[in-house]
Design goal:
Distance between the termini of chain A: 55 Å
Number of strands of chain B: 15
Radius of gyration of chain A: 19 Å
Number of helices of chain B: 15
Largest sheet of chain B: 8 strands, mixed
Organism (chain B): Lysinibacillus agricola
Mean pLDDT of chain A: 82
Family (chain B): Belongs to the amidase family.
Protein name (chain B): Asp-tRNA(Asn)/Glu-tRNA(Gln) amidotransferase GatCAB subunit A
Oligomer: heterodimer
Strand content of chain B: 15-25%
Order of helices and strands of chain B: HHEHEHEEEHEHEEHEHHEHHHEEEHHEEH
């Protein structure tokens, strides 16, 4: 059973404004529709663009 | 000499300062006077630094008059966006939560501008925490567009856009996560450059979304932007996202020649659903480049269809991580609009975020391939002109469309890819400016500035100036 947006946020200690709930739902659904057929493109070949640099972010010379 | 100093660009003022025809004190006073006079009309400033600026101007005057001229920005008065740290000064991010925050150090860009002899006149307003496009701020009031006081200046660097356009700051810096330099630049009729990600250090800039944030110039002319980028660019080990690429002389790279330039046009994404007057101004500018010897090639970038989703998931997730604790403890202290966005940013899963990064990599690869075919891409900066204050919609060819979705459609992809993008004024729709965007390969800022300069020279409306005391 999927949780409502309100439950999801409350589980994280966040209490949304009651007047935000409908807007949040609409915007979340809007984002999901933008995602559309993501599974249809070849993102498996695209690396996840997050770098881990051993020894620190930059090595000072 | 005091007439209309506030309307002059850095490239006009610098020779006057260098040759002692204009005193930095006189210039600073003129800018501050105008800024304070314009404040009730456009509300672009968060804080004025009058006494310190005039004291700083006297020091600078002595330096220049003793023959120690340091370059184009020596003696230029500027105010900066209020998310850039000034040592011992309040930096509010135009928020209630940080209203008393005092930084113990200068941001790297501030330090570099100080060293270049810039005089700081104050801090400029922004959309709260740089997360919005109207600059309608619930804590400090809204900023108005100098071309039409009933219209938004764009955001989030709306104070910078309005101040530079009106003449309350000779130039400025903005920050850009989904278009926050280019949106107000286009809406206010000025030049805005988002450099390559990693070109300018963000140390001492309060973050919105770390992997998408950039700092860049907002100026009256392209050469002013080039000169400013020369000062602020360069590697800084204190910013982990900064890249070690040598700084270049961008002003020298501007010749205005576009002979044999190959311009890429992506019709499917960047010319889809655009206001007809905006489209006309952009296409006429492209034609002016063709008339000067450039060529046009139509290109396809299929994965751009996922750009808006990837941009939203990335920016919302990263921004919400930064504000998570305050959202739990003091949600009532956020403005309603950004509180909603931070709440929304709690919803994507880790899988969503990582898939967004994969999409991002795919888009980057496609752009890299495109730049093997063409030198630059040209697009409208925004599909619409500035909308009316208070509206959450814009008019696109008479149709009401969602404001946020439509404002960031063309600017967001360059934040995802990190590629440099320049907005240059190219015309007007009625009394509201239209901007054109030039996107180039990574670290080729000189190249896009040169194309921007060519457009600037042929722009038939380039001499139009706003007058806030007669506009609406």
């Amino acid at each position: 059973m999927s949780l409502s947006i309100q439950q999801l946020l409350e589980n994280k200690g966040i209490t949304p404004k009651s007047e935000h709930l409908e807007l949040l739902k609409a915007r979340w659904e809007g984002m999901q529709s933008l995602r559309s057929n993501l599974e249809g493109i070849a993102i498996d070949d695209a690396d996840i663009a997050i770098r881990s640099i051993p020894g620190g972010d930059h090595i000072d010379n | 000499m005091t007439t209309d100093l506030h309307l002059k660009s850095v490239e006009e003022l610098a020779p006057l300062l260098e040759t002692k025809k204009l005193s930095p004190v006189e210039l600073t006073k003129a800018i501050l006077d105008f800024a304070e006079e314009s404040q009730p009309k456009i509300n672009s400033y968060m804080a004025f630094y009058r006494e310190e600026a005039l004291a700083q101007a006297k020091v600078v005057e002595t330096e220049i008059w003793n023959g120690q001229y340091r370059g184009m920005y020596h003696g230029i008065p500027m105010a900066l966006k209020d998310n850039l740290y000034f040592k011992d000064k309040i930096t509010t991010m135009s928020s209630k939560i940080h209203k008393d925050f005092v930084s113990g150090y200068d941001a790297t860009v501030v330090e570099k501008l100080r060293n270049a002899g810039v005089i700081f006149t104050g801090k400029l307003s922004m959309h709260e925490y740089a997360w919005g496009i109207t600059n309608n701020n619930p804590h400090y009031g809204l900023v108005r567009n100098p071309w039409d006081l009933d219209k938004i200046p764009g955001g989030s660097s709306g104070g910078s856009g309005a101040a530079v356009a009106a003449g309350a700051s000779v130039a400025s810096l903005g920050t850009d996560t989904a278009g926050s330099i280019r949106i107000p630049s286009s809406a206010c009729g000025i030049v805005g450059l988002k450099p390559t990600h990693g070109r300018v250090s963000k140390y001492g800039c309060y973050p919105l979304a770390w992997s998408l944030d950039h700092i860049g110039p907002m100026t009256k002319t392209v050469k002013d932007a080039a000169g400013l980028l020369e000062i602020i660019s360069g590697f800084d080990h204190r910013d982990p996202t900064c890249t070690d690429v040598p700084t270049e002389n961008y002003v020298q790279q501007i010749s205005g020649s576009v002979k044999d330039l190959v311009i890429g046009i992506n019709e499917e994404y960047f010319f889809n659903h655009v206001d007809s007057d905006v489209e006309k101004a952009v296409r006429e500018s492209i034609q002016s480049l063709v008339d000067q010897g450039a060529k046009v090639e139509v290109v396809r970038i299929p994965s751009l269809q996922y750009a808006e989703w990837a941009e939203l998931v990335t920016s919302l997730s990263e921004a919400s991580a930064i504000h998570h604790s305050d959202l739990q403890k003091r949600p009532q202290d956020f403005g309603d609009d950004i509180r909603l966005l931070f709440e929304l940013g709690e919803l994507p899963s880790a899988v969503d975020y990582l898939q967004a990064q994969q999409v991002r990599r795919q888009i980057k690869q496609e752009f890299t391939q495109i730049f093997n075919q063409v030198d630059v891409l040209i697009t409208p900066t925004l599909p619409v002109v500035a909308s009316t204050i208070g509206d959450d919609f814009a008019y696109l060819n008479g149709e009401k469309v969602d404001l946020i979705d439509n404002i960031i459609r063309f600017t967001g992809p360059s934040n995802l890819t990190g590629l440099p993008a320049l907005s240059v004024p190219c015309g007007f729709k009625g009394n509201l400016p239209v901007g054109l965007q030039i996107i180039g390969p990574a670290f080729k800022e000189g190249h896009i500035l040169n194309v921007g300069y060519a457009i600037e020279q042929t722009n038939p409306t380039k001499n139009r100036k706003p007058n806030i005391f007669t506009n609406s």
